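Moderator note: this is an archived Q&A kept for reference. The question asked for a predicted structure of one protein chain; the sequence and the answer are reproduced below.
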Amino acid sequence: QAKKTQAKKTQAKKTQAKKTQAKGRASGVALSTSPCADPYGLGVVLKVLSEDELARAIALALSQQYTAAYRIASGLSVEDSPTPGVAAETIIQQRLRTTDNNGVESKGVRYHRDGLLFQLIAWVASYYDAAPSDVVRRPHLISASKGIDAGIVHLEDGVELASVSICEDKATDNPRDTIRDEVWPEFVKAEEGERDDELRTFAIDAFIQRNRLSEGEAERAAGAIIWSKRRRYRVRITVATGHKNPPRRGDLFKGFEEVARGDKSRRRGETLYLKNLRPWMDSFAGQVVAHLRAL
């Protein structure tokens, strides 16, 4: 009886998700994504629907149970139970602390934690409107790592590479300054080819995963790609009240059309409204910690 009840709940969630997608939105139990007007590219608004479900998904992602993480956040059933014996305290100490090595509260360490949590939130959101043939890169969990924050490989007909979305994810109190001074320079580097080695790695992994190519075949296929015609860009950033709604929301992305010229489909700006970013992250991190300890 319990299994039948759970099956009905799962089917109801899938039905609601389909209705939402038909309206141009994509929704799970943790987050929703909605298109919005944007003069510089494709605008998308993220919204947290359930902090508890999202925190549970992020806890699973931090313990590298990625499939369970995005399925739970999307309201889908999980075939296997979460892996027992997760070293929760180690993860908490390494990824979610706010103190420096001397045990002193550090704004820099706290901001690194917030940045990692937002990258994982954005990673979950990537699945909500992904095509069946898209390959969403697994997140990297080292907060100080360099390179592309996240990537999505878009395959055409499930076989040929159509494009790769290069994502920059920023949890910040100053979204316009961050986009102009930190994100645009990274996208310019990518447009000039400085990130093509990373894109090639993305493509190789996608070819092996989806096309079942051998490593050698995947490497040769990726090596033949002309990247200048394949790059897309996504900015995913937190905003407060001042940039929540148009037209000021759109003003955040001014200059995007100069950084990545061409069709609007190459440029996507995503915003997550959090009225008080740092207190929200403190509270949310506490929920993630609780879920980690419960795994």
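Archived answer notes: The first helix runs from residue 2 to 22.
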